[in-house]
RRM domain-containing protein
Amino acid sequence: MQSLSRPASTSTRQATSPNPRPQYQVNTQTKVFDTPNGRILCIADIRGRLSALNDLAREANAVAVIHTGDFGFFEASSLDRINDRTLRHLTMYSPLIPTAQRNHLLAPENPPSAIRSTVTISLLSEFPLLLSGQIKLQVPVYTVWGACEDVIVLEKFRAGQYDIENLHVLDEATTRCLDIGGVKLRLLGLGGALVPHKMFDNGDGNATIAGGQGTMWTTALQIGELVDTAQRVFDPTETRLLVTHASPGREGIMSQLALVLKADLTVSAGLHFRYASSYNEFSVQADFEGLRHKIVVGKEAFDKVWESVKSQVDAVIDDHQRVLLDKALSVVERIPPPPNQPGPAGQPHGEDPAWKNCWNWNLCDAAYGCLILDIKDGRVSAELKSQGFNYAYRRTITPSTVGATPNSATSTLPPQGVNTGAAATPKGTGTGSAATPVAAEKPLPPHLTGSKSKPSTPPPPSAGSGRETPKLNGAQNQAAMDKAEKERAKRERKKERKQQERAEREAAAAATKDGATSPAPGTRPEVDLSSPPPKSGKATPEVSTTAAASSNGPRTDDGVTSPATESTGARTPTSKRPPRNPWTIFMRMTNPANEQEVRDFFGDAKEGITRINYPANFAGRNQKMCYVEFGDEEAMKAGLIKNGEKLNDAPAELKQATDKESRGENGHRGGFPGRGGRGRGGFAARGFASAGLTRGGAPPRANGDAPSSET
């Protein structure tokens, strides 16, 4: 099929024109499973990890395996035939290469020669172990080849040089029939990627199959011979399953092939989704014209190539190849007529049966899921299993990462104090009173974040407006609200601290004077002072209380009302910050790096990055420190492997982020910055005082607390 007059080919050696196999010979066998029912495991893209086939079949309790391409047909000599681009692709996705080694090999500074000098056949495929007998297949495996295979290895199978027990390569002249569970399942296979402009190029293939430099693709003669094979073994009592690497859901020519072969079921791969899909054309097309449109588009792409090479192909093919080419062209011309259009006999055409009756599955990679066909009493049941997407990262999304719709006319978030059904109305707000609107950029209210702190009050409306908050842009509005919130929280904490300290001094003095053994009504119960107080200000003491103080709670002798709080122990510091994503990496850089440079630094692991955040401190503003959030733990661990590698000519320090690091990098031990070093230790110390764990004096100084005014 090749000639010097044809367009340039990728072939590196002479190819023979005639078909080396005897003409009109079909390689067919029937496998009878002597069981009342059986399960068939269907997987895709095992990518050379062939030892996993037995494990997957055992987990699925399968009697056979159907594989849809990228099996890993490589041997040691294949490395010399694979080009640099394909070798890099195989290195990127090989499950046999450890993550750390893969990241090192794929680093931008490594030239292709570094990959070629390091990668051996053992890192790409276990096929040599299968060929030598070190790995044995426990159940029959039926496979087509994929887009990344060595065509020379496949030619050795077709020539009879390679023969592996329980391994059946389905091609255009090889078919198998499985008699199982009351169903005779006919397997027809078509391997290789569908590339229209290569359908008349054999590459390094000898006859009808094609490939070269580590890749394989489908040819027109391959399609023609598959049609010829299917016609020769046709049996109306059989159920036909078409196994392809290219998806009929995406490729019109594959849909046409399924129509011509009268396929009842199709299984394909090649889209690399995290979920497998199950569909028929009726379920995904708006009408029958949608199916016809997809087929017409595929035909037009083929016709463009065919018209450019037609004269050259006609000059070099033999009589047998002419028969196969005509059958391939009949597939391309197979376009279902519109319903109700009059036929040759004047009768209107009905719907093509395949429109609703041909069922298709497109599989995800074997690492992410599979399809199990359970056949019993003539019924073919299907089970789809997929690892799917990880949506845990959405639990850590903050309002600042969600952009507001510009010029939106929709209503904003419900104002605070209005019961939305998710939480009770905060104290002090009536059900009929109007509330100040909350700006769209404001963080989520406490009843959505889980915080027990008091609802914050938005900035007051401007004079003369009466209703609306001043219209500022997003940054100015957020800054103004943050400043007002900090000032309000500062005043509240100061007031509460003084009230608590005064109440405790009065209660301690009254207890010493009266010598009472039980607490007075409305005061905090006594705690045994014989045990020393805890040395750390981080643990909350366990204190038994009668009830939480309320706005109508008891008053002290000087008329000071006990502060209203929902906590019975030490008060938790007010914070608007949501819980940190547990899969976050803290990253310190010697030289500044922007967000894109940070993403590129992580190599393959960057696919799992959900957010990169530079803190507001000095190092963060200078882009020397950031937090990198990942969607799951596996992605974060892949990122941690980059610790110590160079970013902008200097090593970067990576470690899993914790709240401790976020405090230490800001130069404070918690709380709000700029308060003279008072941090979380101050809150804990005041908690001990409120629990009665001090002897009436000032709270013990801990964790950087400044001396109180009463000391």
In short: Residues 698 and 711 are 6 Å apart (CA to CA). The chain has a mean pLDDT of 76. Residues 474-514 form the longest helix (41 residues). The first strand starts at residue 27 and ends at 32.
